[in-house]
Amino acid sequence: MKKLSILAALLAVAVAAAMSFGSSHSEAPGTANDRKADNTDTYAYTAPDAPNALTVVANWIPLQAPAGGPNFYQWDPKARYNIKLDNTGDGYEDVVYEFDFKNRYRNPNSFLYALPTVTRAGDPNILQDQTYSATKLTYNRNRRLVSRKRVVTDAPVVPQNVGPKTIPNFSQVEASGIQTPKGGGKLYVGPSRDAFFVDLGAVFDGINIDKPGRPNIGLGNQGGGKDDVAGFNTSSIVLQVPESEVTKDGKLVSGPKAPNAVVGVWSTTDRQRVSVLGGSSRKGGRSQGDRWVQVSRLGNCLINEVIIPVGLKDKFNATSPADDAKNFGRFALNPEPARILNALFGLGIKETNRTDIVQALLTGLPGLTQIGNHPAAADTLKLNLGVPPSANPNRFGLLAGDQAGFPNGRRLGDDCVDIELRAIAGALLPADQGGKQIPLGDGVDRPAKPTRSTFPYVPQADDGFNQQFGRVEPQHAPVPQPPPAQLP
Amino acid sequence: MTAIRPNLIKLLAPLAAFAGALILLVTLGGSKDAGLPERAGGVELSIPRGASTDQRIEVLQRAVRDGIGGAQGYALLGGAYLQKNRENGDPSFYSRAGRSFDAALRRDARNLDALLGAGTLAGARHDFREQLRLGLEAHGIVPELAGPNSVIADAQIELGRYGAAARTIQRMLDLKPNLASYARASYYRELHGDLAGAVRAMQLAVSAGSDVPENVAYVQNVIGDLELQRGRPAAARKAYMAALAGLPGYGRAQAGLARVENAGGALDRAARRLRNVSQRLPLTTILILLAETDQARGAKGAAERDLEVVRAQQRLLRAAGARPDAELIVFEANYGEPGEAVQLGRRLWAEAPSVRSADALGWALTRAGRPGEGLAWARRALRLGSRDPLFHLHAGLAAKAAGRPGVAVRELRTAVAGRAALSPLRAREARAALEALR
């Protein structure tokens, strides 16, 4: 009797399962978010405490909850992470810093991340430890590789800040992981609290002028926004190298007008190229570079999100900035967001032939971020290394006359969302050419956790015990959009 | 732990919804741009990051009920239902997914996620021609996006169009190597007998990973299955353990561990484990493995009960007019009416002329006393070079019965070499048949 009832119960479930599973074929997942390869942000600036160096912050793997254990996000040893620089203006990389990771799992039978107590990067108590090597590659004008130099070998990755019991002093662990690459400078590879800030809701709910209790939030830019990135960590590479390591003549930059002053910066991720027919069966001499496929890239913030149409996003991620004019130029020249803002709110923003947007983001601003006389329209973050760092950085950067800020490079505190919204609305155009000074903004003004004034600059990674999500910006008086910036 | 986390939709990539939210507003404002599909809800949905599938479903259900999700809300809800089915095998989620995709496509006939979701669903229901049609339709809308290629490739494989599948998978790999494309390269290699290459590709898939734990566990688990075919139970065990570490209690990996136990002769322990798993995840594969483990360890009564469950599944499927399935045809040939199995096999072949269908039809013919024809079909099943020990066992037994001892010995040797991937009953059968020919 008992057996029968068990059988009956089993049958009921089993029948259901059979209806659902035609099990005799592969059911591999059809899609997968490739977050380990996802470039989230790229920053490039001259740090006040390192005036003769280029500082780059490149972040990968977005939105890591600090209490993400036991499966913390790791760098993928089977991928390759790159910071690329163009110092000639053709949109092709002239200098590349390439990062390769290895797992050093000390106890293959344990799935714990670390044991108390961890006092330094590479500490034996980090069970799922990783190491990395950094290689500097240099290319000539014909895009031939001319040198390849290991600048850091098998250095420990700074571990996740798993909590005060395991890591009582994370600052010490962080500092112990800072390397000096060959050629000089500093290198940090490890977690940080994401410096990016945005209120996704308020940007557009707010632009819709009113929200209950928050009138005029979008147009007035008066705080009150909720930072959706607040509380999340990301994986950072902070690279600081002497200017002479990256300029086209290998020399220091003498001033903003120097011919070697501007470099274009972007970060990319590659994954291994695979032939469906099997590993080495492909014919023909394949060069080193052909073993990899680029799957993600990031120069200026938000390009992929607001400029590139959905159907071309994979293509954008797979292609080189050098081909941006051909592949995507029309989308920057006639930016979709301008049309949408007009359709929604009748702002009368110029929708077509936006050479100002192309210039600010792709070809560079003449006299400030343009590289050479015939620059390619390329999505690289262009930084004039000759412009001294600002004593009082303004989050609106160039739009507020602060020439050391976005779109001249990008600092951690630059309000990329507000700047781009205002630029799209016409902040960079003279009034007689359709310029408009509309004080758009998302109501979030700064990273939720302060950036630091010394290397590695990024906000320190949070531990899993002190998570706080969704910081709300205090309300403040509206910040108007100043008149068109005076370019040098 | 209790903090409210920002939502997933908004944050798939920071500001992926930036444009999406705009477009949603445009949609609500009635001036939708057909070139850009909207994202669900943009500003209003709140799905915790790292949310379980249940949490996703809950939020998306609320969104569509409140009328803020639009076509994309329904499409994402359908996708979450499909994922739920991957996790618990409950078929009611197929019907729900189907209704959600229909609702999405009524609102926007070109919604990509709905087209691809409906395509995946068609494939799960073994309607591979419809799966191919939907995949191609999506591909036509976004020819440079990698996504549609996975739906297309899966259908081409099941329709036996292997050359076309290779081109589709390569296109996907060249554009966007990730878990989805590496996994398809792996399966293609497996079908062609390149097991080491299949493992290598699947290791890339595991390393690339996914936000959904079940997805990673699935590919990790396949490595275990491949290692068993290669006769490496220790490596297989490692892969199953890794899958379980990432997704505790994962039924397929539990079944995998039982296979490892079977390979090591621990049949009683394997049976206990399988019985346990089958009560949570009564997949046909698991039930048949349990039945054949029980038979091999001499537990006749238990085996009979296991078989009765599969028979019940089969009766229900047939009553519901479901499309035939290779595994159930082999089951029918072994434990039911071989003649009936032949008929079903012919229908299957007409609908899905894959190597797996050829194997099922061939074995049905052999069991029905027509081993000559059975052997011809077995050869078709092996035409790509598959090292699946079950295919080789069927080929060997057909050859033996057809009076082709040379062929039989060769095929049975291959089957015996991969016996760790067979049930203990079939492994024993393979060895006995080979002995008898010596």
Commentary on this structure:
The complex is a heterodimer of chains A (488) and B (438). Chain A is of the alpha+beta class and 488 residues long. Chain A has one domain (35-275, 286-433). Helices cover 18% and strands 22% of the residues of chain A. Chain A is built from ten helices and 13 strands. Chain A has helices at residues 2-20, 170-176, 200-207, 217-220, 303-306, 313-318, 324-333, 336-345, 355-363, 416-424, and strands at residues 39-45, 53-64, 79-86, 95-105, 128-139, 145-156, 186-193, 210-211, 214-215, 233-242, 262-272, 292-298, 381-384. In chain A, a hairpin with a 2-residue loop joins strand 8 and strand 9. In chain A, helix 7 (324-333) packs antiparallel against helix 9. Chain B has 438 residues and is mainly alpha-helical. Chain B is built from 24 helices and no strands. Among the domains of chain B are: 1-125, Serine Threonine Protein Phosphatase 5, Tetratricopeptide repeat; 278-322; 323-438, Tetratricopeptide repeat domain (Serine Threonine Protein Phosphatase 5, Tetratricopeptide repeat). The termini of chain B are far apart. Helix content of chain B is 74%, strand content 0%. Classes of the chains: A alpha+beta (488), B mainly alpha (438). At the A-B interface, helix 1, helix 3, helix 5, helix 6 and helix 8 of A face helix 2, helix 5, helix 6, helix 8 and helix 9 of B.
